[in-house]
Amino acid sequence: MRSTDITIRHVSVAYESHSYRTPIKFGGVALDRVTILNVWMDVETSSGKQSKGFGSMPLGNVWAWPTRALTYDQTLSAMQQFADSAASVYSGCKTSGHPIDITHGLEPQLLSTEVPSVSERMPALAKLVVGSAFDAALHDAYGKLHGLNCYQTYGPQFLEHDLGHYLGSDFAGDRLHNYITPEPKPRMPLYHLVGALDPMTPADVSKPVGDGLPEHLGEWIQRDGLTHLKIKLNGDDIAWDVERVITVNAIAEEVQRRRGVTQWWYSLDFNERCQNVEYLLEFLRRLKDRSPAGYDRVQYVEQPTARDLKANPANRMHEAALLKPVVIDESLLDLETLLLSREMGYTGVAFKACKGQTQTLLLAAAAQKFGLFRCVQDLTCVGASLIQSASIAAHVPGVAAIESNGRQYCPAANQPWDAKFPGVFTITDGTMNTAILNGPGLGAV
Questions:
Q1: What letter would DSSP give residue 142?
Q2: CA–CA gap between residue 280 and residue 340 (Å, rounded)
Q3: What's the pLDDT tens digit per position in 308-322?
Q4: Which run of H or of E encompasses 20?
Q5: How far is the C-alpha of 38 from the C-alpha of 57, rounded, in Å?
Q6: Are strands 265-269 and 298-302 parallel, antiparallel or unpaired?
C-alpha cells in the first residue's frame, strides 16, 4: 500500500430534477426533462488524512437504455435503484489504492449487478452511466486529498501500474500520464447541437420561449460566435436528412458571412438509426452533389448504425470511413468493443464522461496508440458533469472541440455555476475557457 493510496469510508447519493427549456430528440424520442445523480464520497489514507469528493451525471436513460418494453419512468427508476447498488458496492470496497485501480477492480461486480424489479435486463451502457458519478467522486476526492488537479495524479508517483495491467500485453510499459496533459488546453472550440426539433429560422419559431436566449439557429451562431455545429439527423429519411444539412449550411453561410468567418465545421449524428452503411454512403453522395461546401465542412460522423456491433456484422464502415472519420459512440463499452469497432472499419472514438473517468482515460490512451480520430461527446451535461466532460476534452491530445448543449436545453441547472466558471457555461466567441478547469480534484467544487 502506497502512502498516497486511499480507502473509501462513506458514500451518499442525492438527485435533482430539471425541465428542459426546449425538447431534445434522442433516437426518435422527444425528451423534456432530466434527473441528475449526485454522489459524495469520503476517502482516507493509511495515515488518517481525509477528503470528500463529488461526482455528478445526468441519468440519460432514454439514450443509455432505449427500449419499447419499459416506460421512461421505469428505466429511470431502475437506474436509481442501480445507484443504490453501486453505492453499496463502493462503500463496501475494502481495497486501498488509486481511483483507477479501485474502479477497475469494482467494474466487473457493478456490471454483473441486476435490478430485479424490472422485466428487462439493464444494458451495460446504463450501468456505466450510473457508475460514472461514483467514479467521478472517487477521482475528485483523490485529487483534493493531494491538493492537485486529477490530471496531475496519473503519473507513476501515484499510479503504480502501467497500461498493460489494464489493457493487456500490447500496452506493457506504456504509462497513462504520457497520453494526457497535466494542464488543460487554454481554450477549445465548442460544438453546438442542432437538434431535430430545433427551429432553424425565425419562421420556425411558432411559440417563442421568451427567456432572453436565442430562439433559432441563426441567433445562436451570432450570439455565441459558433464555428462548430453538431447536426442531429433521423437516419430513416434520407431526403429530410440531406435537406436538414443543406438548410443548416445555408443559415451558417449567411451568418458567418456577416461575421467575416470563413471556416467552420459540422459533425453528423444519426443516433444509430441508419439501417445500414449504404444509407450513410448515399447520404454523403447526395450531400456532396448538392452542397460541396457543406460536405467539406463535415468533420466526422457519429455512430450511424446499431450499437450492437456483434449482432450487426454487415455494418462495416470501411468505405464510409474513406470519406469522413466515422466514430464509435454508443457501442464503446470497453477495450473489446473498441477493438471490434476497428475491425469493422470505424476510424474514430467518441468519449463521454458518463462512461466513467477511469474507463475514458484508459480508452483514450488506447485510441491514441491506435491512431484513431478522437472527440468528446456530451450527455446534455450541466454543472459538475460538464466541467468533468470539458476537462477530458481539454486534457486528451487530439480532441479538437468540446460538445456542450446543456446551455441550450437546461440552462437553469448551470446558473449556480456560471459566475464561478466564467467562459465555461456562457460562450461568446465560439470557444470555451478551459484554462480555468485546473482546480483540485475534478475542479468543480
A1: H
A2: 20
A3: 999 999 999 999 999
A4: strand 7-26
A5: 7
A6: parallel
**% helix / strand / coil in the chain, to the nearest 5?**
40, 20, 40
What pLDDT is attached to residue 413?
97
Q: In the chain, where are the structural domains located?
A: 7-168, 187-436
Q: What distance in Å separates the CA atoms of residue 165 and residue 132, rounded to the nearest whole number?
A: 21
The pLDDT tens digits for 232-280 are: 999 999 999 999 999 999 999 999 999 999 999 999 999 899 999 999 9
Give the global pTM: 0.97
Q: How far, in Å, CA of 426 to CA of 435, rounded?
A: 15
Rounded to whole angstroms, the Cα distance separating 314 from 246 reads: 29
Tell me the fold of 187-436: TIM Barrel (3.20.20)
Band of the pLDDT at 46, cuts 50, 70, 90?
very high
Architecture in CATH of 7-168: 2-Layer Sandwich (3.30)
Beta bridge partners of 57: 37
Residue-level pLDDT at 27: 72
User: Which residues have a Cβ under 8 Å from the Cβ of 302 and sit 6 or more positions away?
Assistant: 267, 268, 269, 270, 271, 327, 329, 350, 377
Q: Look up cell 450501468; give the residue.
A: 127
